[in-house]
Fold each of these.
Amino acid sequence: MAYQTVSLPSFGSVRMDLSEGLLKPDMSPDACNVDTRSGALRTAFGFSRVMPETLEAITPFERMYVYATERGNRYLAASQDMLYYYDAVSGIWRPLYQFERTAVGECMDFLKVRIGTEDRLLIACGEEPLITFDAATNTVDVFGTEQKESYHTISYVELYFGRLFAAGDPQAPARLYWSKAPGGGRMIDDWRSDEASENVSGGYVDVGVDDDPITGLFAMSNQLLIFKRDSLYRLLGDRPGNYRIIRVDAAFRQPLHTACVRYADRLFFLTEAGLCFYDGQTVRKSAAFRALDPILQNANLSGIRSAACDDTLYFAIRMRYDAPYNDTLIEYDVLRDRFMLRSGFTAVDLCTVHGTLYLLTGAGKYVAFDNNTSYDGDPIQAWWTTPAMDLGRKDTNKTLLRLTASGEGRIGIRAVSDGGTYETQIRLSSVPLGVTEIPLRGVGRVFRLRFSSVNGAPFTIDAPVTLLFDQQKRPG
């Protein structure tokens, strides 16, 4: 045999559920902090602080929310005992509301609503009645009253056909409340029944049994999804007179409320078993359902947070089970059905407004993903690893000779074979259309290549990449 070449046609997503020998060359069993959407390999963009001031709290952080108004964004954050807002005039974080008991992020919900003629942010904390945030005055008010039968402890809120739906009452864990239809003097803070007309009336219904509590509400275009701890229901109809609640017959692992995210009238959610979505009729598994199976089976999803930005879904999880905050961000490209991982920061919560993804770190930094080449000053350590390759011939030795690539920046390359490991660093040609030849070493029947950043500096490797090697039959 003689010299031969093999081409890596493009760079793709992370796939961990298959044996490396079954992976296509563009799939990686180990990659992080890279962007491969164009087929090239480049360091992913980072994030910058939204404001320079760091939020400090006595108890751990739980949630964040960016409330968009005509006068600009309002930035909110919640710890277990306090709700804060950022005072942009004074440049400081101010306490806004103190929770009576410890608030748990998985039982908190936010919803933009209109009460009469006023726009408000509705906040449920799961430990006390609903409150509203007024962005014009930066103040909090109690939402409901006992007279209007809306003074219940609530964890989950949703708007569906103009009405407010609510659940999570610890006194009635399977109960679903709805408000009167707004208009004609009626407002969504009135949950009383109305004898004049059933179709404008407020009310409630118990969904299933109390020992299977409601754990989330999500409105689709033509139905309201009601997640329970052990089951899933959907409410059909546009007024109480024609409401129908139907159980969804599907086998799946129940998600946390904070693991669910809407995209194009589908509801995606991530559990330890993989990524699923509700398609309007039933729950289905994504094509790459088990792509991250080794990670998810050992991860801690008890504090999972999620958001959608453009055509990408984001899920923040704890890779280390005892980590105080989420330390890994999973990116899912819906259009390409591909996953990527990010690390190097902590993520208390995520939020998307006007095409920008925001994140609150465990250190109290409010950041936005942008074109920054660092994570707010922390270097981005990026890498992408090929599958273990034998090129269809385990009976031959491959002597690695040279890698030919184009791109920019300084890259690290590690060539691992069953005969040893070789590492080198090189700066790619900065000349337009320039090509760089990178000498390699290593002999073995199976080999793997790893491309990585050097000291966190950004890099780009264009596709394809060509590997020159010498293939010889093994003696005997």
Note: Helices lie at 293-298.
Amino acid sequence: MSTFCFRFTPVFKLLSMVVGSLLFAGSVEAAVFDITDYGAKANDDNDDTKAVLSALAACREAGGGTVFVPAGTFIISRQKAESPILALCSNLTLRGEGTASILKFDPKVNQSNFWRMLGSSKGDVRNITICDLHLDGSNTYPGYVKGKTPEQCHGIFFHTVKGVSENITIKNCLIENFCGDCIGFSVGSRHITIRDVTLRNFIRQGIQLAGREEDGNYLVTGCQDLEHTITLGGSTIHVEHAEGTKNIQIIANRCRRSILAGGVNGLIIRDNVVNGRIEGNGNRNILVQGNLIRGSNAPRSLIQFGYARNLIIRDNILIHAPANKTKGEKPKTKRVGIYVWGASRYNPEPSHDVMIRDNFVQSGDITVSLNGVHGGEVRGNRTDYANKTGQALLLKRTENITTDSERKP
């Protein structure tokens, strides 16, 4: 018995030391850097940029921590370098008290370009959280005017050619009034989460995603855009310049504008409510499921994909608005529910392996249309009972497509 105790007592002591050190480490809070301790003053007309930069620098020198923005409005302006104005470091939480904590561009933003409020510095940045903040871009343009409206004034902008921006989370923020993008992630971005973010009055895009083949693993969920008071130029969620970016999930968002996505390998668009359309070109391994899409009265497709490979579209509800047409007039362009195409004069490659099942299309002229598709299945799609003139399926330049005859309820 004594031998048994002798052998295991040192091990027990070592485990006790490890557990104790972990408990002690967990009890020590990360350093907090309040921007008002560095000279920022809320609700005046003075520029607070240098004070916020000082708080960020102190956090960087400490190896990380929390930079805190208390309630109030703090003015941010461009500081010589184009991007970003407030460069974020690794192991950082930038946190406010909710929508009362406002970082706002100086109104001078409307007379120049390339203002990016928050983003990555040169080199690698990892483990960043931006939360409980209100970002205001101070845009005064009522809409896009070519040659006049600044297009590169963004709220959050991560683009790192010679580095990585990794493990970035944006949550519980209101981001509005940017003449560029409210949020943009591009080259070098990996493992990005955008959750429960509210957008309003963006002239370019609400959320813009891009990247290379080595980039990706993006999740956008629980986001919404509020009613806008300007004429928008872009989409609520937009993926472009994606050169094979991997694994983008767009799930359970409420979009007053469209969702557009192209160039993605591993794309999920699921359970969104969209006023507009869902569209993309050049994607591989795509699932579009469970979305509710309300289209305008324009004669166009509500779901449209081109040059797709391994595409599943199922269990979506698509509703066309009533058409604007003169009595007796036959519109030249059809109102299509789901349209998949390929093999055009720009690219001879057809779309491959397409499955379209169990979708419901209301008030469309054509439920499903395939043009330039090789290999696929179209089954179980429905249209509304009152739509007696609609065409169930239109096939052009297709091969190896398995279909059934649509039965109206």
Note: The chain has two helices and 38 strands.
Amino acid sequence: MWEEVGKNGKKWERGSALLRGFNPINIDEKGRLAVPTRYRAELRECCDQQLVLTVSPDKCLLLYPLPEWEEIERKLSKLSSLDKRAKRLQRLLIGHATECEMDAQGRVLIAEPLRNFAGLEKRVVLVGQGNKFEIWDEDIWNRSRDEWLAEESMDELSPELSALCF
């Protein structure tokens, strides 16, 4: 069986918690986001700086290492084209997928249509989700986070979430 490896031969470890944490960042006047230093070396090794940006139904952007995106894309492509929800998700995620590369300074250019979709101005937050980052406008993130906290009740958790210890 073949394993997915980056150009340098290092295997991308799916499911690893490589991309975690909360990082407030500025986007520069050219629309570039500087990936925090603590992630750069691992991203260089696991995917040779090759990344994919796409939109999320949550109105943020998703930033994937290329090997992780390719797995998501394979799964999305296998969904039935007769299922309306699946087709919409394919159109959103695959249709907006944009390959990008970290430059020598660790910056990623976010294309203007993607910035407009997510309402990204100057201040953004990079939110690690294990296999990807979410990129949010800082104000939208703060409002959304506060809404999520207000509407969630820990008394009404599903059995699966109730078993989670944290």
Note: Confidence is low (pLDDT under 50) at residues 1-12.
